[in-house]
Specification:
38% strand, Immunoglobulin-like, globular, 8-stranded antiparallel β-sheet, 172 residues, alpha+beta
């Protein structure tokens, strides 16, 4: 019986390594695993979109945001918060690269959270967390949420009863 388990473990490791090697040989930094979540308008601004998490071959995550309704030269702060989007004063888990108003896009290679702990793609998509795009990173406009969406466990717990209220973020 032990030999069967050992052979199965060896086969699994070999298959996993072959999958990563195939991705490297094809010139791709990604495994092909990805998860997308919707971002709803968070205020009276008509801004919404999606966030996609893609797994790198090293297990880390690439986070891509694409919003509609942005314009100009603004740089809109993006935060990963613990808890769902309705949680007031939700703790900050990570600062992501800002969304450029001219393109509505942001891209971040996330390897560590704000507390310096490492995070993988698989851990990220299992978090009870949310993404919030802010109007500003300081002053009264920092509490204006332009777009937000639950990820991981928070997204799985959402009911399909319509738009969720968006809580304000913890100001520090």
């Amino acid at each position: 019986m032990k030999k069967i388990f050992a052979m199965m473990a060896f086969a699994l490791v070999t298959w996993s390594c072959q999958e990563k090697e195939a991705a490297k040989k094809s010139g791709s930094d990604f495994t092909g695993n990805e998860t997308t979540y919707a971002l709803q308008a968070g205020s009276t601004y008509a801004i919404s979109g999606a966030v996609t998490f893609k797994e790198h071959v090293d297990g880390t995550a690439q986070i891509l945001l694409q919003l509609t309704g942005t314009d100009g030269t603004s740089r809109l702060p993006v935060h990963l918060h613990m808890g769902d989007i309705t949680t007031d004063a939700a703790p900050l888990a990570a600062l992501l690269n800002p969304v450029l108003g001219s393109t509505g896009a942001s891209e971040t290679h996330l390897t560590n959270l704000a507390d310096e702990s490492t995070i993988t793609y698989k851990q990220l998509i299992a978090l009870n967390a949310c993404i919030k795009v802010h109007l500003s990173d300081a002053g009264p406009d920092q509490n204006i949420i332009l777009a937000a969406g639950n990820i991981g466990v928070a997204a799985a717990k959402e009911s399909s009863s319509g738009r969720l209220a968006v809580g304000t973020c913890k100001s520090e």
